[in-house]
Specification:
158 residues, 3 helices
Length: 158
């Protein structure tokens, strides 16, 4: 009798665990499906949103795939490859009401060798659209990782 009761409790527990796990799995699958379509936002709008209220901006943009545009203000190298782009913006500080600097850093998924012909389109001063995951924000900056360059409406492939 005691053994049957223990078996019944174990079966009930297992059924409950499977039933509880099912919504979590479907929610995870739904999140993966949603992640395939990035949130498209201009760099200027993203920068001002973070400057205005980082908590509200984080709820909307943090750990999310974003597609952002802006003008390249700088490049960073790693192991003789261009590994990061910096997009700079001027935003209005809500506390001081003065304009201040803001940067969006884009860590490239596939860094480009110095001689790569595609670097001509990624030179300082050129307009670019990037797609990456927002992994950090606040203190006058946003960091996007795993960035891909979104091709202009041509046949260029990146």
């Amino acid at each position: 009798m005691k053994q049957q009761l223990c078996s019944a409790i174990l079966v009930a527990f297992s059924i409950g665990f499977v039933a509880m796990a099912q919504p979590i799995e479907s929610a995870t699958a739904q999140k993966k499906t949603e992640a395939k379509t990035p949130i498209v936002v201009s760099g200027a709008v993203l920068a001002q949103a973070v400057q205005d209220d980082v908590s509200a901006a984080a709820k909307m943009y943090h750990l999310t795939e974003l597609q952002v545009d802006g003008v390249i203000a700088g490049q960073s190298e790693f192991k003789e490859r261009i590994a990061m782009l910096r997009l700079d913006f001027m935003v209005k500080d809500p506390k001081t009401k003065k304009m201040t600097d803001f940067s969006i850093f884009c860590s490239l998924k596939e860094p480009l060798a110095k001689g790569d012909k595609r670097l001509d389109e990624l030179a300082v001063g050129k307009k670019v659209t990037v797609r990456g995951t927002s992994t950090a924000m606040g203190n006058g900056q946003v960091t996007l990782t795993g960035c891909l360059i979104v091709p202009k409406k041509t046949n260029a492939k990146y």
